[in-house]
Every structure is written in structure tokens, then in C-alpha cells.
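[step 3/7] fold_predict: job queued, chain A
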Amino acid sequence: MKCIVTGASSGIGRDIAIYLGDLGYEVILVSRNKLSLDEVSRKIDNSRVYVCDLRRDDEVDRFCQFIKKERPYVVVNNAGFGAFGLYDEISLDKEIDMIKVNVVAMHKISKAFLEVSSGSENRYLLNVASSAGLMPGGPMMSAYYASKSYVRSYSLGIYKELKEDSRNMSVSVLCPGPVDTNFNQVAGGHFSVESLSSEYVAKYAVRKMFRKKLLIIPGLKMKLAVFFSRFLPTKLLLFITLKIQHKKR
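[step 4/7] structure written:
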């Protein structure tokens, strides 16, 4: 059975792909970095590489047609990136690219995969959001927090629609806290708290996905933080988030 993983050239996506390969699945690795994909592919017995720049509408549209043709068993929407800084420090072009990858491509890919879910065989969609998507907002990473909030909200919505329609499609959304990947280097900040390993998060996410867990939050500390944040006023949460972000400078 085929599994498609976007953002598979590094971090959580790479480790999800490797773990799925270890479980015996055929894995299709997707990223715009062919050299890195080839390196990951060598670690997986049964894998293929699909090079796609998710910032480009034409390439995303071709990829969606590929998904409909391949009819995969699992799709993991992991590709995404962040940008750190005040709203007037981050270029509009970078924010638009972020929205194209984190939101538009994720939405199109999910939609394409849903079109092949009408058969009797179970299928699994895992959309990778972030603990940022569980917060009311993220000063100094405002566009990123907003994009991940979209991923979470959209995933929860289609989960319920599919349940009501009795479709054989399981939808899960992964909301990790800090993870030891190259995210910081791309975003331009540094986590000020302890990070989980991407390998741990990847394996945890895949196991929970196959158990049809809707909201996946790795790590006890993050689970507790999410739980207690529900009892705090929005303005206080924004203040705390800003203080945490300042420490990333």
C-alpha cells in the first residue's frame, strides 16, 4: 500500500516516511529538494521521489492529479515553514509563500485525497499543524500561528463531515510543541524550551493516526500546557506567548 509524505526531505516528514517504510509500506517522498529526497529514499526499501515546489500553484495542481491517479492508502500533509519576527520585519512575499505552502497546498492535497476515499478500503489523512494552531494568536509569528490554526480547524471540520457521511477516511491533525528539526533555522528563531526528537514525534503520530486519533499532541508537558491554557484569558495568553517569542531572539 502506498503512503505519500510531503516535506519528507527533513525533520518530522523524513522520520514519518522512514517509519512508514519500516512498517512495510511503499512511500512516495515529496519535497522541492531532490538531493535531500534521494538521501532519504536510500534509507527506505520501497520508496519513490516526487519533486514538487508547493509554493507553485501549477506544481501543486499536477501533484493533486498524481494523488488521484495513485490512490494512496495514507497521505501526510507535513510540508510547511515559519517566519520569526515582528509583522513589519517579515516580507509580504515570504508570508504569502508561507500561506501557499502551509494552507493552500495542504487544502488542495487534502481535497484531492478525499476524492479517492469513496471506496470500501480505509484511508488515512494526517495533517501536520502545530501547538501554535491551538493558541488564539502568536505575536512575532503571527502569520505562522494563523496558518496552523487553519490546518487544525479545517482538519477538525472535515473529520466530522466524513464521520457523518460514513466515509472510510480517517482524519488526524498533529499538533506538536517544540521539535528538534531545522524549523528554527528556516524561521529565524530558536526554541527556548526543551524540544522533542523528530523521530519520537513521527512514530507517536503514525501510531495514533492508525488508531484514528483525531487530535494528536505528543509529550505530557505539551498536553498539560494545552489543557491549562483553556482557563486563561485571551489577552493573558497573548502576553505569555509574546514573552516566550522574545526569548527566541
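[step 5/7] annotate
Strands lie at 2-6, 26-31, 47-51, 74-77, 123-128, 169-174, 179-180, 196-197, 215-216.
The chain has a mean pLDDT of 91.
exit 0
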